Amino acid sequence: MFVDRVQIDIKAGNGGHGSMAFRREKYVPNGGPAGGDGGKGGDVVFKVDSNLRTLVDFRYKRKHEAPSGGNGEGSNRSGKAGENLIIGVPPGTVIFNKDTGNIIADLTEMDEEVIIAKGGKGGRGNQHFATATRQAPHFAEGGEKGQELTVVLELKLLADVGLLGFPNVGKSTFLSVVSKAKPKIANYHFTTLVPNLGVVKWKDYPSFVVADIPGIIEGANEGAGLGHQFLRHVERTKLLIHILDVSGFEGRDPYDDFKKINLELEKHNKKLSERRQIVALNKADVVEDLSTLDELKEKLIQDGFEVFVLSAATNQGIEAILDRTATLLKEIGEVEPIFEVNEEEAQKVYRPTFEKDYRVRRENDYYVIEGELVERLLTSVNFDDYDSVAYFQKVLRDKGVIRDLEDLGIEDGKIVRMGDIEFEYFK
């Protein structure tokens, strides 16, 4: 099964919580703080695996989560960092942010890797909160949550040459003749339902990869037929060979087909439509009126295209078109990328629901604080300890929570709810 587009949910590991612990030491209050730090959560890393060819494995596993960091322990022992989750993808995988549609990464090189979601930082143990006046802090810091988001993986074939053409024009036959690929061939439309790749080794030229891609039809840019699949896969090619059926058996006008497909390319992507393109007039061995073939060839030449007459079934004209293809690939060299990775998107810190790590709202007579900050604080604060409560209030003020509550119109004596706890607000 060929799978070229999937949607998955990924989550980096949470940071471990800092520890509240004390040493057993003579003349030191409570033995002195000795709480270790929590370990960092594991990152989610995507890495190119040359052994993979499709995204089919992701069809059966849609959620991927990296391990969390370990909690800190006494005697200043830090928690173990969570291991990174390495997700293998085939070369040619593009990673999109599902919510924004922006490209986060475009993975093409062997063993190339990129961190898509970063693990949460571990919380600090109570050893870090000791001061001259607070020698035995009864609180530690909670670990941060790992980043999480939904991504779309899209596979685009890494081929040097893409074969353009309506269904049943002879693309599969051409590929089978010029390479060792064995695509399914039959005399009906949409024979090719998945892309086929073939490596061409021709004379003393460097070998190159040709892709026979699902046939395109008019309206492909709007998703008609197999159009979206087709257009996605020709985006990486350096050279396009546009194959036209000149036999007349299908009752189609090959020049009209040529114009329609190029219009679809231009609608899909302007850069793609500007790729170098040569034209192959296929099935020439069964053409009865050679004057029509000459007229079509002249039209295409006047439009600025190189034209080759061939019959893939009998090998007529194959040598000439392969010679020219190999020469052009050398002349073209590297092409301008169609995609541009959004660097800002790649560096963005993803939050599951909102940009701040908290939010405040009014619910009847209550004021509610919720979000990641709340979860972190509730694991850090000992509400029976004065210093711990003072730390709690300082964090709320420094983070801007108090200001946001005041903007909502909170007054002295009103009840504030955070998770399972409630307290009265006083300035």
UniProtKB/TrEMBL annotation:
GO BP annotation list: ribosome biogenesis
Binding site for Mg(2+): S172, T192
Keywords attached to this entry: Cytoplasm, GTP-binding, Hydrolase, Magnesium, Metal-binding, Nucleotide-binding
Keyword Hydrolase among UniProt keywords: yes
Source organism superkingdom: Bacteria
Iron-sulfur found in the keyword field: no
Gene3D superfamilies: GTP-binding protein OBG, C-terminal domain (3.30.300.350), GTP1/OBG domain (2.70.210.12), P-loop containing nucleotide triphosphate hydrolases (3.40.50.300)
Subcellular location, principal: cytoplasm
EC id: 3.6.5.-
Pfam families (alphabetical): DUF1967, GTP1_OBG, MMR_HSR1
Family: Belongs to the TRAFAC class OBG-HflX-like GTPase superfamily. OBG GTPase family.
NCBIfam families in alphabetical order: Obg_CgtA (TIGR02729), Obg_CgtA_exten (TIGR03595), PRK12296.1 (NF008954), PRK12297.1 (NF008955), PRK12299.1 (NF008956)
Entry protein name: GTPase Obg
